Request: fold
Amino acid sequence: MSAANNKPTGKRVGRYDLITPMLPVKDEIVAKFEKILLSGHYILGEEVRLLEEELAEACGVPAAVGVASGSSALFVALAMAGVRPGHEVITTPYTFDATMEAIILLDAVPVFVDIRPSDLTIDPDRIEAAITDKTRAIMPVPIFGAPCEMHRIDAIAAEHGLEVVVDMAQAFGTIYDGQPMGSYGRMSTLSFYPTKNLPGIGDGGMVFCRDKRDADRIRKIRGHQAVRANNHLYTGWNSRLDEIQAMVIRVRHAHFDDEQRDRNQVAEIYDSYIPAANRLQLPNEGRGMHVTHHQYWVRCRDRDGLQKLLDSNGIDTAVYYDPPLHKHELSVYCRNVGELTAAEQAGRDILILPIHAALPFEDAHRIGALVQGFLQNEAAQAES
Reply:
């Protein structure tokens, strides 16, 4: 929404602005809310059905199923992929807690392998060493909107008879080798949390299915119906996406490309100031790739010093996944394979800069210049 990217306000620069992108669509949302309110049909109605169809088409899969949250989407996708108690799921430690929690809630074991420093996603070179006779699935995470190397991951999974479930909570719109991230794996999952690139105004999630049978089973489970699959009887539970959330997400989806263009512009501004060695680098020079930049990160040895500088200039930042999940209290339920030094280094070095559809470009230039100056001073001190 280019109208949002005008002159800087002079106020503190927040990491998110959840209100400004809503202003151009406020009247449309209010009108549709009134229609739903007076319809008396609040759960699993026309808005949910249309959202499922639209996003399935956008992600290039036969079916999508709306559920109550991104966490619920992970849980049910892993269950339908056959993850049972005692099984292992190979994944990354540099991600949000929900990735690990869904595995543990199935009484399965998260198995952590290290990440690639260049893009912070799971390192395919580390996966095969983690496979055992208990391994059931691989769960890559396109963290911060950067695509995972899916062809290699899919090839490893196929060779060993494993399922792939992609936790793409942060990656709607991300492209790998010319295809949407949601088209990879047996299933992929999405979160509509309000800070995501495609947001609702509360909790919500979706499972993208390459097999319509998985979608049919998930639709039953989300509505309290028991399902037989994988030689097991699964209980149903309440995991329904409501009509209000679906309606808001549909409205925002109609404006997704415009908002994403503004995010892309902010990322390009940052890129013009920040050396390549200190930011995201895609494999294969990014051919056929698109990053949605759910977050924009910079790597800095004196991360705390950079954060203090930006804070003193009225700029909010964040530290993510420090420490990574293999240092979490729940790691007692997990298994580590090899050294996880790249994930630990990322936890110490990575700082998240503001990026959203309403960030004024002038503010992005100011932030980029401050980061550039800090990194230049840091490099000069290291050489002296």
